[in-house]
Amino acid sequence: MVLNQKQKTKQLEEKKLNNFSLYELKKAPFLRGFFFIFDFMNIQDLHSAFLANPSISTDTRKIKENDIFFALKGDNFNGNTYAQKALEKGASMVVIDEEEFYVDDRTILVNDVLKSLQLLANFHRKQCKAQVISLTGSNGKTTTKELINAVLSKAYKTIATKGNLNNHIGVPLTLLTIQPDTEIAIVEMGANHLKEIEFLCKIAEPDFGYITNFGKAHLEGFGGVEGVIKGKSELYDYLTSNNKSIFLNADDPIQKNKLNTYTKRFGFSSEDPKYYTIQLLDAQPFVNLLVEDINIETNLIGAYNFSNCCAAIIMAKYFNVEMHEIKEALEEYTPDNNRSQIINTNGHYIILDAYNANPSSMKVALENFNSLEKDRKILILGDMFELGESAKEEHQSISDLAKSLNFEQVILVGENFYLTNNHFIKLRSFHDLKAYLKENSLPSKSSILIKGSRGMALERVLDLI
């Protein structure tokens, strides 16, 4: 008997209500071309399919054999249109939310691909034995995450956020890399507006958390510094309301004001003996610290990286990692990916810190650079993004700071820095910087700090000097 569309839809709904498996639904002859509504009631079925092929892709350019392709959407792309291509390139299944792009029985049609990815990640997290450590903050998240992973992996099977995949897509993708034998998952969380960290916590359900700091980052989305504090604190709010534990910097003035509101807390301090004591010995140029009478010499430049090291140490101590393993991990770690990298090229000593920038990180970077015992110090600074109405004021403030520190030469790049009031070399774009450096060589054997927001991509300067 040939069924009309109404009869097909009714049968499909009956199968959903009867909780048929995903595979039974996929094999049903009437499914082809019709919309299967996927929801939390059958998330277990999708998870079973994921366990059979535990690798997710959201980009057909990077797809691997047997990946499950989630057809996400963005402002300028629609992943549904790539479903056919994903299968051709070896995907085991594709998850889409527009029925016109249904391919064959390897296609799963859902209401919302992104929501399905998030639900799957949360379900997977619940099934795993791994303890989850989440961290957020205005500056230092990625470095701190890598340091935590370095020390904990000495004693445990760990996974950690890759790169800076720390948003509403990146967090689910990170959770889905947790393996059956994973013991600790370190999940970085980024945010540029209120309630975002709260939402990410509902997906990751962390057991522990740490906030690196509260700085002038994403001011446009948070509506100012107070919004930043409130937004980042959503991590600690979640943990305390769920009787979970927090790690904290007891020397941070903002966190210090809230110490009494956190009951299950484990802190570090160089000032307060009530907390685990770690001392900064120097940072000329690398962070050298003292803990339990053991000297640890890192490859991290700048005193601002001291607290990042401390966070890794306090977590390692909590999880009973041996002190010699902590020392080994911190001394082995070398930053990369444009984060405070030390590069010696053509006689120049270069600090490449072009991973990102905001007023807080820019300030400490300039102050640290000024404190280094180096000659011929040159700044190449790029615009700081997402500052909204504060952009003019904050760029002028950094310009004024640079002037007060008396560097030999300052080159400012970007529309915001171009409008600042000073006598520095000001260029509207990287294209203008490239032209300038072709005509004007930097003084030989200079010490150069290169810093700007990710969108400025100032690492390209290396090819010019």
TrEMBL record:
Residues 56-119 form the Mur ligase N-terminal catalytic domain. GO terms for cellular component: cytoplasm. GO terms for biological process: cell division; cell wall organization; peptidoglycan biosynthetic process; regulation of cell shape. It holds the Pfam family Mur_ligase_M. InterPro entries: Mur-like_cat_sf, Mur_ligase_C, Mur_ligase_C_dom_sf, Mur_ligase_cen, Mur_ligase_N, MurCDEF_CellWall_CoF430Synth, MurE/MurF_N, UDP-N-AcMur_synth. ATP binds at G137, S138, N139, G140, K141, T142, T143. It comes from the Bacteria. Its main location: cytoplasm. It is found in: Cytoplasm. Involved in cell wall formation. Catalyzes the final step in the synthesis of UDP-N-acetylmuramoyl-pentapeptide, the precursor of murein. PANTHER family: UDP-N-ACETYLMURAMOYL-TRIPEPTIDE--D-ALANYL-D-ALANINE LIGASE. Belongs to the MurCDEF family. MurF subfamily. This is UDP-N-acetylmuramoyl-tripeptide--D-alanyl-D-alanine ligase. It comes from Maribacter caenipelagi. The lineage of its organism: Bacteria, Pseudomonadati, Bacteroidota, Flavobacteriia, Flavobacteriales.
